[in-house]
Amino acid sequence: MSEYSRKVKYKFNKLLSDDEALDLRIQLSGIEGIEAYSLTNEFLDIDFIIFKQSEKSLLQRIGRLGHPLQVYKSKKPGFFKNFINNLAKSNKESFGTKKLDCCDLKHD
């Protein structure tokens, strides 16, 4: 992906049927500025050129095609995942990236 393109993930307001997904694939191929896309019955990932399209214009255009959707915001990591990530970061700072060996640890 270049500096002139952006990737956005949309979530459909309702699950698409296989026929609706096929119809949308055909319609997406005709929209200028879309470099690539991935479509499931629930999500649509689009890589687009920022000079030809915007997130808002894509959202509106696909909505007018009869497939209302919204920008998908992934969930932020919860307390436990943050704890594990912080623990891993702390261990990496203390012990480095090499495999731990009892002979390498300092003994008093």
Structural write-up:
Helix content is 35%, strand content 22%. It has 3 helices and 4 strands; from the N terminus they run E-H-E-E-H-E-H. The chain is elongated, with a radius of gyration of 22 Å. The mean pLDDT is 84.
Spatial extent as radius of gyration: 22 Å
Provide the low-confidence segments as ranges.
none
Note the beta-strand portion. 15-25%
Tell me roughly what share of residues is in helical segments. 25-40%
How would the global form be characterised? elongated
**Structural class, from helix and strand content?**
alpha+beta
Q: Kindly report how far apart the N and C termini lie.
A: 53 Å
Overall mean pLDDT: 84
Q: Sheet bearing the most strands, described? A: 4 strands, antiparallel
What's the helix-strand series? Answer: EHEEHEH
Tally of DSSP helical segments:
3
Total DSSP E strands: 4
Strand order of the largest sheet: 2-3-1-4
